[in-house]
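To whoever is on call:

I kicked off a structure prediction for a single chain this morning and the downstream step that reads the tokens threw a length-mismatch warning. I double-checked the sequence; it's 196 residues and nothing unusual in it as far as I can see. Pasting both halves so you can look.
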Amino acid sequence: MECPSFYFALGSLFMAGISRTGCYPLLHIVSSISLLVFVYSREKARNIDFGMKILKHNDSILLFGSLFLESLLISRSAGRLGTRVFKAIAACGLTFSITLFCFTLRYVADNKVEGKKIQRSGPYKYARHPLYSALILYWASCCTYLSCFISLAAFLWFVNNRIFPRIKEREREMISISSEYTEYRKAVWSGIPMYK
């Protein structure tokens, strides 16, 4: 999708978020989301087949909607030390997850099994599902950064009931295509603490 106005809008959101330090935490989240969408859409424009549905449109609307509604409707004090510590940890989680997401996209194009070896370099050397890992950490960090713990609980339910079945289905598909994936699966951690 090569649309200059789309990229301009994403860039504007990103710049608005990083220029407003401390005042509008929700704007920081919108800003980081615009960065992820920008990077993802640029890779899709290069005709890279991700071979998976990380988040469907309905999922995205539900997750974004619940997070934004909770952050706007339930006000919380950000003055306590504990809250500031959680916010700092969440900011580190956001930074790390965005970096991992962008870094992993560079290796996705080669991560196919038809006629090729399974990708074992880059983040795939340490985790089987680094994109899922990055997005799960990203969303958990978003909820923590905004102190939206109801949304965090809903997201953990979503991961368990929607994301894990998608990962299992993808792994079954990979095993049916290549026996090498079975060995890779045994040797390498999934990258998600709650998933083997």
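Update from on-call: the warning came from a stale cache, not from the record. Cleared it. Sanity check on the structure: The CA atoms of residues 90 and 141 lie 5 Å apart.
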